[in-house]
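Structure, all two chains, one model.
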Amino acid sequence: GAGVSQSPRYKVAKRGQDVALRCDPISGHVSLFWYQQALGQGPEFLTYFQNEAQLDKSGLPSDRFFAERPEGSVSTLKIQRTQQEDSAVYLCASSPWREVHNEQFFGPGTRLTVL
Amino acid sequence: DAKTTQPNSMESNEEEPVHLPCNHSTISGTDYIHWYRQLPSQGPEYVIHGLTSNVNNRMASLAIAEDRKSSTLILHRATLRDAAVYYCILRDLIQGAQKLVFGQGTRLTINP
């Protein structure tokens, strides 16, 4: 079946531009996560949704980062006034609520480069 | 979340077994041990998880020490496709912890 998809796969932005990254989770998955992965590092948690409710946004690095999931399915991560330090791979993951071990299924990521 | 310690890198040969260690000396009684791996240019993927007993699945085996302060992921017969970064992660699922807390992981290289 279809996995988690993300678009675009690659995004180049000039410093100061706004960007929007899209995540299509696996159909029926209640939980959705965003992670940021800098070059050579492990992924770092950004935010978590359960259906349309954003239950944890403790990992968002600044108020320039905003995420939404208005209908409990597709999610968008928006970064305003991008900075060079925002350059990273942004990973989306989804998880079915009732799985005992809550395995997370990851998309391929969006590689953002800020010039 | 309790922290884990893994070697930065390991190397093995194709078709040989690989033992990837993880230390988690501050593990709590309700922490599950999860392993994910990340192949080049892909998102992480789930490998295996366990609580106290050793576990086997089609991908790997997980051996957990009796005191639970360490664990070992075992790839029984490595292939070139197993070259990846392997992450050992503790998750307190009883407390409802949802996010994954990744460390640096172990970069596994497989020689043909």
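Strands of chain B lie at 9-13, 18-23, 31-38, 45-50, 55-56, 61-64, 70-75, 84-92, 106-111.
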